[in-house]
Prior knowledge:
By secondary structure, this protein is an alpha+beta fold. Helices cover 46% and strands 11% of the residues.
Amino acid sequence: xxxxxxxxxxxxxxxxxxxxxxxAAQAEQVQVPADAALAALDQCNxxxxxxxxxxxxxxxxxxSAARAQASRPPPPWPESYGTLLKFxxxxxxxxxxxxxxxxxxQPDGTAATIGDEVTDRGFAQVQGARCTSEMVGVHPVGGxxxxxxxxxxxxxxxxxxxSQECTGIMLYVxxxxxxxxxxxxxxxxxxxxVRGEEGTERSAEWNLFVRMTPAAAEG
Length: 219
């Protein structure tokens, strides 16, 4: 089976030769001499033969090229391809690896590891609670995807202390990955009074730090 394009070209060339002779005769309104017609036809035949010869050669070369391509050996694998990757730090326990990565990512610990009942800036910790007076949309410190750090915690306390409306800070301590991405490094703030359980609600994923009044801090 030859290429359709080549066969179409041969047919078009043959038809063009015949049509060319007829057109020339009609245009000049003269009878084409027999020897001139034979010479033109011979020229067409030679061009047609050359075209068919080229088509046949192409058909013979195509399978040869395909066979040559198929007979080539595949390229060699890259160096060390397929070898087992070494475990990071020589640790094969995935749980231990995650814990180690967490320590590298958060050298200052997390909000859940804050052990102070009252911080050095005067915030009393209430575990497993949120305030009911969240400052919605107020996030002056940290952000989504921000790493928790001691500096971030200090900045959050300083901002709350400098704000007359701020009465407390809520820190996310849950283990849900997506929630942690959004809130572990983005404290929330309270604006209403918090006295004992008044102004709070229970939440296992949050710890509340209530801003103490000077009198309460001294007491």
